[in-house]
Write a structure and sequence with these properties.
Blueprint (H helix, E strand, L loop, with lengths): L2 E4 L5 E6 L1 H15 L9 H18 L4 E6 L4 H7 L6 E10 H21 L8 H17 L4 H12 L10 H12 L2 H17 L2 H14 L22
Antiparallel strand pairs: 1-2, 2-4, 3-4
């Protein structure tokens, strides 16, 4: 079963499951976001989600964290049925930064809506419920970290969020880098604000986007191709 859990230092979320859980999520992501030419105005958002898919895929391959978890098989059940079997399953996991994952929840909401518009008989699509559950798990994990009143405000903002078309995805990098450097207590206090900022596209986001557009205009490059001049630390304290 796919599970999401806040990391000890509140830096991000651990996505955990067996091989089939993670592979199912990865396939659903690729299915819903389409190929690189399908939704050109969402190219930046697609790249960010592909970054998460990359981590999920490598986790499923055992390249990230590996742990054993109780599978519900008790000794009396083994005796009752007369067989020998392990009482633990192998689970794989990977960590994703909180701002990154919150943006993914919003972006997948929009990609799912675009997919429904174009797909025939989307109510029978096996991948859309997987994406919807992943989004719900992200928000449920957030629910456990913020006061109820703030969580309800975040839900409302996420529901009413403006389109992510041509979103300046470098803003997610900006928030990621600021968030990584915060002490744990500050992360806990700031997380609701970051969730709201990502969804609301407030004046700070608008000013940031204008700076990115100014950088892209001389070369007439698409907004998603402009790189933020900053590097992520090699080691992140999760």
């Amino acid at each position: 079963m796919l599970t999401l859990m806040n990391t000890p230092n509140h830096t991000g979320v651990k996505i955990s499951g067996d091989y089939f859980d993670l592979d199912e999520l990865n396939q659903a992501i690729y299915h819903v976001i389409g190929d690189e030419k399908k939704y050109y105005d969402y190219a930046g958002s697609r790249m960010r989600i592909l970054g998460i898919a990359y981590e999920v895929r490598h986790a499923a391959q055992g390249d990230r964290n590996v742990e054993s978890v109780f599978n519900g098989l008790h000794d009396h059940t083994k005796k009752q049925h007369g067989f020998i079997a392990p009482d633990k399953n192998i689970y794989f996991s990977t960590e994703i930064l909180w701002p990154e994952l919150l943006y993914a929840a919003l972006a997948l909401k929009e990609f799912s809506a675009l997919h429904r518009q174009q797909a025939k008989s989307s109510e029978w699509d096996v991948h859309l419920p997987v994406i919807q559950r992943f989004q719900a798990l992200i928000l449920d994990c957030l629910h456990g970290q913020v006061p109820e009143e703030e969580y309800q405000a975040i839900l409302k903002t996420f529901q009413e969020a403006p389109s992510l078309e041509d979103y300046a995805v470098q803003y997610v990098d900006f928030l990621n880098l600021k968030y990584i450097e915060m002490p744990k207590a500050q992360k806990e206090k700031t997380l609701p604000l970051i969730a709201m900022k990502i969804a609301a596209q407030d004046k700070d986001y608008a000013a940031f986007r204008n700076q990115v557009l100014a950088a892209s205009n001389p070369e007439k490059r698409p907004i998603h191709e402009i790189r933020l001049q900053a590097e992520y630390p090699e080691d992140i304290v999760w």
